[in-house]
């Protein structure tokens, strides 16, 4: 009788040990996909806000763009990414009237600008929640600002009243932060919505660039 009681007490422990051992064996037999690098491609909208009089804001605006990036994993929570963002030109128009020989002429001043950037970012990823995993980014962007200023005038306007075409290209390093959300679709494919922001400063301008985006990520 005593031996039966001992066996009865040991049976649950033996079953639990067997289940744990089976689970470990099954896990060992399941091939784990170890992702080491990835590429992404997507689109964004660049929202630009420059310093100066907010009622003028001749360089403020927004423009769509495309983004590509490559990255490599550093451990289970960190990855290093290098990305290129190429946006289109945004334009702001400002009409103004001038008087010439008692005649009023309306000139239309147009300011266009384009911001391109290359960013090196370090990303920390939080623990997964189902198919979703948040990422927190920080790093440095190298920004290229291309500005064009020209004026449209009615036919016959004296050339002396029309300002000359002006074009400038400047470069700046810009601290960058971001947040994204990786949504797993398949073993290698993910959709990654997010936003990045940077603060830049040139010789005569400074400002803020915010880019909400959505990308497709392929890991390998």
Task: Produce the secondary structure layout.
Elements: H1 2-29, E1 37-50, E2 61-74, E3 78-87, E4 90-100, E5 103-125, E6 132-152, E7 166-184, E8 189-201, E9 206-219
Uncertain segments are 1-12, 18-33
Q: Which topology does CATH recognise?
A: Porin
| CATH hierarchy, class | Mainly Beta
Write the CATH architecture name. Beta Barrel
Describe the overall structure.
By secondary structure, the chain is mainly beta. The protein has one domain (35-219): Porin (Beta Barrel), CATH 2.40.160.20. The chain has one helix at residues 2-29, and strands at 37-50, 61-74, 78-87, 90-100, 103-125, 132-152, 166-184, 189-201, 206-219. An eight-stranded antiparallel barrel has the order 1-2-3-5-6-7-8-9. A hairpin with a 4-residue loop joins strand 7 and strand 8 (189-201). The chain is elongated, with a radius of gyration of 29 Å. It starts with a helix and ends with a strand.
